[in-house]
Amino acid sequence: MRRYSAFAIAREGARYHTGWERAWKSPAPKKRYDAIIVGAGGHGLATAYYLGKNHGIKNVAILEKGWLGGGNTGRNTTIIRSNYLQDPSAAIYEKARSLYETMSQDLNYNVMFSPRGVMMLAQTEHEIRGYERTAHANALQGVATEFISPQRVKELVPIINIHGPRYPVLGALWQPRGGTARHDAVAWGYARACSDMGMDIIQQCEVTGVRRDGNKVIGVDTTNGTIDCDKLGVVVAGHSGVLADMAGFRLPIESVALQALVSEPIKPCMDVVVMANTVHGYMSQSDKGEMVIGGGADGYNNYTQRGSFHHIEETVRALVETFPMISRLKMLRQWGGIVDMTGDRSPIISRTPVENMFINCGWGTGGFKAIPGSGWAMAELMAKAASPLADEFTMWRFGEGKFIDESVAAGVAH
Ligand SMILES: Cc1cc2nc3c(=O)[nH]c(=O)nc-3n(C[C@H](O)[C@H](O)[C@H](O)COP(=O)(O)OP(=O)(O)OC[C@H]3O[C@@H](n4cnc5c(N)ncnc54)[C@H](O)[C@@H]3O)c2cc1C
C-alpha cells in the first residue's frame, strides 16, 4: 500500500500517463475500511477529504482503476461558476465556488484558482430572456451575477466581434467571481490531504463487483482482490451505470464523450472566460497562453475517451465568427472524456437501493466547478445519512417527477 507526497502523486501520474513505467499492482489490503470510495477523480477525492475533515472518518480507501485525476477531472476545461437557475443547484454550486476561493489555503496546495470572471453570451432574443431570468433568480439566491450590455462585453473582451453576421452579441450573463482553477492540482491537492490523514489511495485497482450480505453492502471485488467496507461511495462519472449494474440497479444516466482542444500558446489576449451557447463553443486562455476551447458532446452513447474531427471543425467554425482572430491559430491537441448525463441535467447525490451504498454522479458536462461542494455533500450524506445540500438530488426524483431542470444552464455548457 502506498502513501503519496504531492511530488510522488505527480510522478506516478506522469509515469503512468507516458508509459514510462509499467503500471504497478499491489495486492488488496487485508483490512476492513469504514468507507470505500470508488473513483479517484475530484468528486471521489473531495468526498474522502470531507469524510475525514468534517466527520472524523479517516479509515477510508479510495480505489481507482487508472491513475488519480485521469478521468474527466484531468480532462476538463476548468470553468467554475455558480449562475444556475434552480435553488438547489445555486446552493451546491455556490457552496463549491466559495470553497474554491480558499481551497489553496485549506489544502496547503496551490490550485491556481483564478476568479477572472465568466460571461455567457446572449446571441438570440431567447437567451436574453433566459439570462435575465437567471440573473433575477441569482439575486434572490445571493449569487452575484448581472446581465450586461454588448458594449460592456466588448470592454471586457476586446478581441470579441459583437457584430457577427449571423449571431451578434446582444448582451451577456456576467459572474465576476467565476473563473478557472488548475484541474490536476485540485485532484493532487485533495489526494495529498487524504493521504496525510492516513487514507489509502489505491491506483490501478478496478472495482469489478459489489459484494453484499442480503441487501447490505459489505465490500467490493477488485482486480487486486476483495476489499471489505462498511460503507461504499461510488463516484465514477461516466462509468456510474456500469457500477450500478454491478450492484443490481439502474440509473437514469447516459454516458457520452465530450471533447475539448487547445491552441498553440500566444500572448495574453483574453482575461475572462467566454461561453457562447448558441454557436456552441467556449474559450478561455490558460496561464501558458493556450486558448482552451470546449466543444460539444457526441450525439450517441459511448465510452470512448477520444475527440473527433467533425466536432473540432464545428466548434472552431462557430467560434471564428465571434473571435475572428482565432482563425489564424494552430491547434495543438484535442481530447475527450466520458460524461454522465441525466435527463434534467442535474446531478445525483443519493442513497441507493442497496443499504450503505451511496452514489454521486450525473454532473455531465459541468462537474469540475462542483467538486468541493459535491464532496462536502456526499461526505455528509455518507456520514449522517442526510445532507441539506444533497436532499433534492436523489436518484428517485425522476420517478417522482421532481426534476431540477438545468437544461438552459447546463445542457451543453460548462
Ligand atoms: C472535455 C470536457 C470539458 C469539461 N469542461 C468542464 C468545465 O469547463 N467546467 C466544469 O465544471 N466541468 C467540466 N467538465 C465536466 C467535469 O470534468 C466532470 O463533471 C468532473 O470532472 C467529474 O469528476 P468526477 O470526479 O466525478 O469524475 P472523474 O474525474 O471522471 O473520476 C471518476 C474516476 O472513476 C474511475 N473509475 C471508473 N470506473 C471505475 C471502476 N470500476 N473502478 C475504479 N475506478 C473507476 C475513473 O477511472 C475516473 O478516474 C468537462 C468534461 C469534459 C470531458
Overview of the molecule:
The protein has helices spanning 6-18, 42-55, 87-101, 103-107, 125-141, 150-156, 183-196, 240-247, 309-322, 371-384, 397-400, 407-410; strands spanning 32-38, 60-63, 79-80, 118-122, 146-148, 171-175, 179-180, 200-202, 207-213, 216-222, 225-234, 254-265, 273-276, 281-285, 290-297, 331-341, 348-351, 357-361. The radius of gyration is 21 Å and the shape is globular. Strands 1, 2, 8, 9, 10, 11, 17 and 18 form an eight-stranded mixed sheet that branches. A hairpin with a 2-residue loop joins strand 9 and strand 10 (216-222). The protein is 31% helix and 25% strand. The protein is an alpha/beta fold. It is built from twelve helices and 18 strands. Residues 11-24 have low confidence and may be disordered. The structure holds flavin-adenine dinucleotide.
Count of strand segments: 18
Please state roughly what percent of the residues sit in beta strands, choosing from under 5%, 5-15%, 15-25%, 25-35%, 35-45% or over 45%: 25-35%
General shape: globular
Largest sheet report: 8 strands, mixed
Per DSSP, the total helix count is 12
Ligand identities: flavin-adenine dinucleotide
Low-confidence stretches: 11-24
* Helix-strand string: HEHEEHHEHEHEEHEEEEHEEEEHEEEHHH
User: Percent helix among the residues?
Assistant: 25-40%
Rg result: 21 Å
End-to-end Cα distance: 36 Å
The helix-and-strand class reads alpha/beta
Average pLDDT taken over every residue? 92
